[in-house]
Each structure stands twice: as structure tokens, then as C-alpha cells.
Amino acid sequence: MQWQDHAIIIGVKRHGETSVIAEVMTRDRGRHLGLVRSGRSRAMQPVLQPGNEVDVIWRARLHEHLGEFRIEPLQLRAARLMETATAVYGVQAMGALLRLLPERDPHPHLYDALEVILDNLHNPADAGELFVRFELSVLNDLGFGLDLAECAATGARTDLAYVSPKSGRAVSRAAGAPWADKMFVLPEFLLPEGNHAADFDSLSAAFRLTGFFLHRHVYEPRGIDTAAARDGFIQAALKALDPSVKVIPAAPLAG
């Protein structure tokens, strides 16, 4: 069996003396593993770095086998991704999110989003907003998507201000006022009209929102911890927006 696709490197593990097992995200075949012979050579090590875009040919006798990759470089981003803290942590954090998805399960929109984010990780404000949207997309693909388009109580599509921690649905300012202290703030940049840019407060609120639902629906049921790279990315992105503020990652709410 054989296929060919564009892919983004998201991780590498040593295998034997000279080879590695590469973990890539492909557009049409999702997250996929494959053996790269001589993957630890001087020629291949710079290519097999997280964030790099490559052309992959996969071969195996049977579909369920690990198989072998033949990899050729297309866009080497890794050196640039080492220049900022948001990029260093961001590429690791997105790899951890993609590992929550079943292997070989196609998610072409996540591949496209990954490409966009990798090209914007150098800008903390843009990177933070894009990363939150990436987390929301992963939640949706796992079956735990949030409904931020209309009020859960009234059906209104305007003046949405909160998100219910129970339903994951938006709530209007008027309907949610009596329970405002028990709900999440809905960041303006996540509103359906999408005409607000993320700032320190809205980005902090967004990370708290996605972190809660990831913890409740994904991490806690699987008995795993939030990736440390996520906390690193949050601190780097928020610190860049307001250097005077000491950022302490918020613990997930109980729920």
C-alpha cells in the first residue's frame, strides 16, 4: 500500500540506532505515524523538526502496519519558530491537542488551521486568538463543541456576554445577569460578527473558557494532565500583550 500527501511534522521519537518514528499531521489522512530510516542523520534532523512542512510518501504491506515514510522538505519553519516563546510553546501545544484525536482520522480544516497558525506564531496577539479558535475546533471535532451563536435562554443572537459552564452555550447579557458570577465571560473576539480584536482581558477569558471545557470533557475523563506547553504559551502570549502583568495560569474550574 502507498499514499502521498503534504504533512506538518508534530513530533519525532528515536527508533533503534539511526531511525526515528515521525508523527505528522496530514491534510487528508489526519495524524499519522511512520518509520523514517536514517532519520537521525545530519541531513534529516533539520527536516524532522516540529512545524516543518514536508512531502510524505507512506508505504506498508498492510493498512494497519506502522509503515515507512519517505520525506522531502517543502517549507522549513523550525528555525523561525525558535525565535519567540509563543512559537516555541505554541507548536508543542498544538501537537498535544492533535494527539487527542484518533490516529489516521482526517481533519482537513485542522490541518489548514495549523498552517495558518504556524505562520503567525511570531505575533502574540494573533497567535493567541488563533490558538483559542484551534482549541474550539478540536473540542468540536471531539464532540464537545461550544454553541456561541445564540442565547441558550432566549434564542437572541445579539448582546451575547456569557457562556454557561453546564451547557457550553452562549447567554445574553440580560438573561445571564442574575448568574453572571457563575458563568464564563464570552470574549468579544469570539462573537459571531467577529469584528473585535483580542486584547489581554478577552484573551485571558478565552483561555479560561477553553481550558475549562478541555479539562472537563477531555483531560479529566482520560486521566491526563493539560500539556505544560499550553501554560507556557498562555504566559508568553499574555505577557507580550501586557509586560507589566505577572501571568499565573488559572486552574480549571470544578465542574
Q: What's the end-to-end separation, in Å?
A: 46 Å
- Give Rg in angstroms: 20 Å
**Residue share in helix:** 25-40%
Mean pLDDT across all amino acids: 93
Look at the helices and sheets and give the structural class: alpha+beta
Low-confidence stretches: 248-255
Largest sheet geometry: 5 strands, antiparallel
- What is the percentage of strand-forming residues? 15-25%
Order of helices and strands: EEEEEHHHHEEHEHH
Task: Report the principal-axis shape.
Answer: elongated
Number of structurally distinct domains: 2
Secondary structure tally, helices: 7
Compact description:
With 255 residues, the chain is α+β, with helices and mostly antiparallel strands.
Write up what this structure looks like:
A hairpin with a 6-residue loop joins strand 6 and strand 7. The protein has 255 residues and is an alpha+beta fold. The chain folds into 2 domains: 75 residues, Nucleic acid-binding proteins (OB fold (Dihydrolipoamide Acetyltransferase, E2P)), CATH 2.40.50.140; 122 residues, no CATH class. Helix content is 35%, strand content 21%. The protein has a 5-stranded antiparallel beta sheet. It has a 3-stranded antiparallel beta sheet with strand order 7-6-8. Helix 3 packs antiparallel against helix 4 and helix 4 packs parallel to helix 6. The relative contact order is 0.12. The chain is elongated, with a radius of gyration of 20 Å. The N and C termini lie far apart (46 Å). The chain contains 7 helices and 8 strands; from the N terminus they run βββββααααββαβαα. The C terminus is likely disordered.
